[in-house]
Amino acid sequence: MNENYKKLAVAFTGPSNSGKTTLIVRISNILQDRGFKVCIVKHDPKDKARFDKPGKDSDKFSQTGANVAVVSPSRTTMFKQTASTIEELVEMFGNFDYLLVEGLKTLPLPRIAIFRNKLEDRYFEVTDVIASDDSIKESDFPQGMNKLDLNNPEEIIDWININAKRVK
């Protein structure tokens, strides 16, 4: 087992249905196939996430306002009643090689913006690089903004390895 974890963190942003989740899943699978430990954080901006199905014990527990953990032989599921900082998430996950964050534009992490069909300049302020497919013309890209091929996860992983933030 790897004792020298990379602890690299990177974030993905972009409009709904742009392909963020699909890309993160592809990257996670490739990295895990290579033997790396990957953690993923998903932002829930509309606060829709449920801990369990309504009426089940763990959902009833979380409805009390308490922090809740469900522990089984193969996993631990936790529902915390407050937001977490990047430092708290890193500590919670422990040792890992890659932390992939979907959303959370306020986190100070290198950020890949995902676009299909059109660019949305409201994301540019928090974007380090754009990943898109050929549905967007090269001439539409902002000057000075680098582009990655959304359909080439290897290229995106190379960018992550060079640009991701090392966290402690």
Structure notes:
There is one protein chain. Strands 1, 2, 5, 6, 7, 8 and 9 form a seven-stranded mixed sheet that branches. The chain has helices spanning 20-33, 57-63, 86-93, 153-163; strands at 8-13, 38-42, 68-71, 76-79, 98-102, 111-115, 129-132, 147-149, 165-166. It has a single domain, classed as P-loop containing nucleotide triphosphate hydrolases (Rossmann fold), CATH 3.40.50. Strand 3 (68-71) and strand 4 form a beta hairpin. The chain is built from four helices and nine strands, in the order E-H-E-H-E-E-H-E-E-E-E-H-E. It is of the alpha/beta class. It is globular.
Features:
168 residues; alpha/beta; Rossmann fold; seven-stranded mixed beta sheet; two-stranded antiparallel sheet; 4 helices
